[in-house]
């Protein structure tokens, strides 16, 4: 299987290029952003050695679906989706925080809790919770956005005290975050899934707050299967989940958590294929339709042609 690990386009009126962990972002005439979602995969804020076929397509197409399904809640940055791996949108000035919202005690929050902490990002948690328990109510646990290295937990109080976001903007971000999570939860439930936790990124353009980047994808979210959830909790069994957590667990089991001196374990063809299949599984589960693999030969040529055609209409 072929995968898109990096791109090197030079579009008309291209004014900037930024290579993120998994996205290549091209700025056009300082007005539009062409976001190419590559097949790179990251975990613990480290880009892994092998790209995952069709991962970029899965992320981009799920994000497009959910951005469209939530635009009545908050306007978003998207102008066009000209290719299965590309989104074109308006340029926004990103807020320097990511709004992480959790309905269940899982992942990073559980690791903090199991280490004895009873406060995450300034939000208090009760004693007596087990891994993957439903929280009394969803909580927002923001992180700072790191251009390089690890994102860091931060409390609402610190965000406001440091002037990272104004009070009025932050209150609006909170409302959007709760409303988006509620909508995502409802959509997931229709597909037999639980939206465990997720993150949203926002930006501002001409005084308007926009939802930016991807939403409700396996890279930005964690899903459990609803069927059997209660029974698995009662018997202390691991939850069946669709998220990137299985990649993190594989890395942990092989001695890697992104810490200094640790080496990324070998990603064999079998591991790469299994990760690709899990991403496709989530797409089909949550979108409710068969995943149609985009043409894998000459991926860059296809993307360039589709983007050039789309830019002519913007």
TrEMBL record:
Pathway: Purine metabolism; IMP biosynthesis via de novo pathway; 5-amino-1-(5-phospho-D-ribosyl)imidazole-4-carboxamide from 5-amino-1-(5-phospho-D-ribosyl)imidazole-4-carboxylate: step 1/2. One of its GO terms (molecular function) is phosphoribosylaminoimidazolesuccinocarboxamide synthase activity. This is Phosphoribosylaminoimidazole-succinocarboxamide synthase. It holds the Pfam family SAICAR_synt. It comes from the Bacteria. Belongs to the SAICAR synthetase family. GO terms for biological process: 'de novo' IMP biosynthetic process. Keywords: ATP-binding, Ligase, Nucleotide-binding, Purine biosynthesis. Its EC number is 6.3.2.6. It is an enzyme of class 6 (ligase). Gene3D superfamilies: ATP-grasp fold, B domain, Phosphorylase Kinase, domain 1. InterPro entries: SAICAR_synt/ADE2_N, SAICAR_synthetase_CS. GO terms for cellular component: cytoplasm. It catalyses: 5-amino-1-(5-phospho-D-ribosyl)imidazole-4-carboxylate + L-aspartate + ATP = (2S)-2-[5-amino-1-(5-phospho-beta-D-ribosyl)imidazole-4-carboxamido]succinate + ADP + phosphate + 2 H(+). Residues 17-255 form the SAICAR synthetase/ADE2 N-terminal domain.
């Amino acid at each position: 299987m072929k995968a898109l690990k990096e791109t090197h386009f030079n579009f008309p009126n291209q004014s900037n290029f930024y290579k993120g962990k998994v996205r290549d972002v091209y700025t056009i005439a300082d007005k539009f952003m062409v976001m190419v979602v590559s097949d790179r995969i990251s975990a613990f804020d480290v880009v892994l050695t092998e790209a995952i076929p069709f991962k970029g397509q899965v992320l981009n197409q799920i994000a497009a679906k959910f951005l469209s399904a939530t635009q009545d809640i908050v306007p978003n940055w998207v102008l066009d989706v000209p290719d299965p791996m590309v989104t074109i949108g308006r340029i926004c000035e990103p807020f320097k925080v990511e709004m992480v919202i959790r309905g269940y005690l899982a992942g990073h929050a559980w690791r903090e809790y199991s280490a004895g902490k009873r406060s995450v990002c300034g939000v208090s948690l009760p004693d007596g919770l087990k891994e993957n328990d439903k929280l009394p109510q969803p909580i927002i646990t923001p992180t700072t956005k790191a251009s390089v290295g690890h994102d860091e937990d931060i409390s609402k109080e610190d965000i406001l005290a440091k002037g990272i976001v104004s009070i009025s903007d932050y209150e609006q971000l909170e409302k959007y975050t709760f409303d988006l999570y509620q909508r995502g939860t409802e959509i997931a439930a229709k597909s037999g899934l639980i939206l465990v936790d997720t993150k949203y990124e926002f930006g501002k353009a001409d005084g308007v707050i926009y939802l930016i980047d991807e939403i409700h994808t396996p890279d930005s979210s964690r899903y459990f299967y609803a069927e059997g959830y209660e029974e698995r909790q009662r018997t202390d069994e691991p939850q069946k989940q669709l998220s990137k957590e299985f990649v993190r667990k594989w890395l942990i089991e092989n001695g890697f958590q992104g810490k200094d001196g640790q080496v990324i374990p070998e990603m064999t063809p079998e591991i790469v294929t299994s990760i690709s299949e899990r991403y496709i599984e989530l797409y089909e589960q949550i979108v409710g339709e068969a995943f149609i693999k985009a043409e894998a030969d000459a991926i860059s040529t296809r993307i360039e042609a589709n983007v050039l055609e789309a830019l002519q209409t913007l």
